[in-house]
Design goal:
single chain, alpha/beta, three-stranded mixed beta sheet, two-stranded parallel ribbon, 5 helices, globular, beta-glucosidase activity, GH
């Protein structure tokens, strides 16, 4: 309403980690993508495509709210710039054993995330127990956003 007269810009800042597959297996690569879908795509896909990521739609099913056509159109392209908070990265492994678990935000993606695999840390640990120093993850996340969302 005021954008034309005030020349304002509307932005959003999203938080996301980067996810590194624990192996080169397709199941683990897919798990890393699902982890990213459930963390970053959950917000970015509606803002760029007017819908949730396909992985969320198929895995969460009817528990995921649906956008009306009008809402979808209003969401698409509704921001001028994106801010990004990046703190850490994690290993991601396919976790089919979660399929029967109580449906929650932590289990729906069927992904196990951890900062170490086979006793090897992804990077040095910071003062916080969850914070792993992995600058490459920030670069990978930026490249992913550029490729996926331009």
């Amino acid at each position: 309403k005021y954008q034309a007269s005030q020349k304002g810009l509307l932005g959003i800042t999203l938080n996301s980690d980067w996810f590194v597959p624990v192996s080169k297996e397709k199941a683990d690569r897919d798990a890393a993508q699902r982890a990213l879908d459930f963390m970053f795509g959950w917000y970015m896909e509606p803002l760029t495509k007017g819908e949730y990521p396909k992985s969320m739609q198929s895995m969460v099913g009817k528990r995921l709210p649906k956008f009306s056509e009008k809402e979808s159109e209003q969401l698409k392209g509704s921001f001028d710039f994106l801010g990004l908070n990046y703190y850490s990265s994690f290993y991601a492994a396919n976790a089919p054993h979660l399929r029967g678990a109580e449906p929650t935000q932590q289990t729906d993606a069927l992904v196990n995330v951890t900062n170490q695999h086979d006793g090897k840390l992804l990077g040095p640990m910071a003062a916080s127990s969850w914070l792993c120093i992995y600058p490459r993850g920030f670069r990978e996340l930026l490249l992913f956003i550029k490729k996926q969302y331009n």
